[in-house]
Amino acid sequence: DIVIDPNERIAVMRKGGIIRLRDYSPPNQVPTHVTLGLAWDVTDGVNIDLDASAVCLDSSRNVVDIVFFKHLTSNDGSIRHSGDEREGDEIGDDEKIAVDLARVQTSVKYIGFVVNSYSGQELD
């Protein structure tokens, strides 16, 4: 059986989609922590290397910081990447990015999550 904590909110991100935290939160409440979980599986015996990144932008949408497999922690320590998984053979999420929203520096107004295929496969 799968047990889901009723206080936990899960959103499924689609290619090109936007997820606003306020749409998944009770009125006038925003979570203090969010986690991007990226999971994939090997198909037809071909290893696929997907990579998750977090891009932090200021109010003018200029890049303030980027967290990815070569820079695992944001400069302010509020965003942490679990590390690079190259084959998608883990149980559950293969890569995670955890964000402590209360610690994000005040100049950051937007955090975008990006998924790309390091091995070059098309993403649907």
From TrEMBL:
Pfam families in UniProt: TerD
Coiled-coil positions: none
Location of the TerD domain: 13-122
InterPro entries per record: Stress/Tellurium_Resist (IPR051324), TerD (IPR003325)
Protein name from the UniProt record: TerD domain-containing protein
Protein source organism: Pseudictyota dubia
